[in-house]
Amino acid sequence: QRLPRSHPEHPSPVDINILNITFLHPVIQLRKDRATRLLEYYDFIEKRNNDTGNAYHEEISKTLLYALMLEISDIYRNISGDRSEVTKPRQEQLTDDFFRLLTAHYRSEHNVAFYAGRLNRTPKYFSEAIRRISGRSVSDWIATMLLSDSKLLLQTTDMTILEISEELGFSSPSVFVQFFRHHTGTTPLQYRKQL
């Protein structure tokens, strides 16, 4: 049985900006108590994952991973709050602003020009700046967000391909299927059946 779509009282780590923060700050220094807590989560998840005798084994594993992601999100939220008071170089600030916009709009806006326009930059300058700071193109980041979300929806909901394509802002299911196949080598339905 698939999990229901997230509701407000259970925020998704994606909703709390964990992706854009970890893209920019992949290595952080943890306080000892935080590191200990994360290691405890990891050890417990590993033990539970090996206990396949429970009828709800898969749901328990997903829930524990979700809790771990929320812990990590909280760590990054605190770090991001601390860093926001520090003046950043202009292109790094632009990249931060892009990831904030991307997190809010990737489902409806798939074009580089939208993000460049919202940040008052030409698409050329914007694309070069993002690639220079992040090592990847704006289009790659948009595709990464869409692909991650589409996989999550295929794994955790019973939404149809039509519903997912509409949810992610694709003009038609065939465009979504083509996008998914291009990035994974398989169709969304084949991907779901392999789970």
TrEMBL record:
Keywords: DNA-binding, Transcription, Transcription regulation
Domain HTH araC/xylS-type: 96-194
Pfam family, one: HTH_18
Extent of the signal sequence: none
InterPro entries, sorted: Homeodomain-like_sf, HTH_AraC, Tscrpt_reg_AraC-type_HTH
GO MF terms, alphabetically ordered: DNA-binding transcription factor activity; sequence-specific DNA binding
PROSITE patterns: HTH_ARAC_FAMILY_2
Entry protein name: Helix-turn-helix domain-containing protein
Organism expressing this protein natively: Candidatus Coprenecus stercoravium
